[in-house]
Amino acid sequence: MRYRNEAVDHIRSMETAYNDLMQRFEGGKLEVNKCSLCEDGKSAQFEYVEGITLEEILDGCLERNQIDKFHALFNEYLERISYHEEMPVADYDLIFSNILITPEEAADEVTDKAAEEVFGEPVGNDVEDTFKETSVEVANGVSGETVEETFVETVSEDSYSDEPSLKAIKNGVWTIIDYEWTFGKPVSSKETAFRAVYCYVLENEKRNKLNLDAVIDTLGITEREAEEFREQEMGFQEFVTGKHKSMAQMRDAIGYKIMEPLKWVHKFDDSSKKERIQIYEDRGKGYCEEDSYFVRDAYEGENLIRLKLEADGDVNMLRIDPAMDYCVVRVKELTF
Fold it and tell me: pTM of the prediction?
């Protein structure tokens, strides 16, 4: 495979970025996914890391309306990326999807052992009674803090779902897995965090329920600064894509609506039969099959038709049958 010089330089810069970021976050609470150049010097390999992206976890918070948990995790993110922000190295693309979290494993065995030491038997199924008994024992002076904290975590709302608890996430390992756009200059944490939230909301309309004003207040950003950050983001996107277009820009330029492939494939067998447009021409005898024809390739998408018809002077009226099936038609545009 042939590489352009610019591409080779870009790939090689990733190992440099790894070393620089390791130096910056040494002693902090962010790990950096290990990168090393391959023998050919034209490719790089990264360590395999298991976990969940911060983006997925935040989406789960919004879906369950756990807004307080969302902001707690955002504040944790802000604290971690702020470490040594004055140093002349910054991952500009430190968005939520580029951070992988390996949550702290559930301490079920530790919890059961602690309970057995207090009660002399394993924890029962009645969570409410267990919590009440723990409170009584603590009040009587039995090794208070550790046992109480353990059981509060046991009955928290997170323990009833597959989603890791807030404590497990905060105590887990946070790893930067993509640092392709690392620059040798300092970038403030509030600018990095604003860009992360800005991109996060733009990527999915379901995230519009997030109150951006509250996030901006947390970051201490003025309206003028927010506007400057948005303009910088536009400049960064142009820098990345150059003369090319991103997939999203290509879709917008084409102008087609989004179609669900599975839904389209499921209907494909019938669509070839039903989605046939037949045109009838009345040449003084009314409409008849003899004076009709079919228009090919008129369907531009699911339930979307665009066609251009020509009729000579002998045609009194036209009839358009949009499908070989019953349907309701809405004319979006008609020109002569």
Answer: 0.56
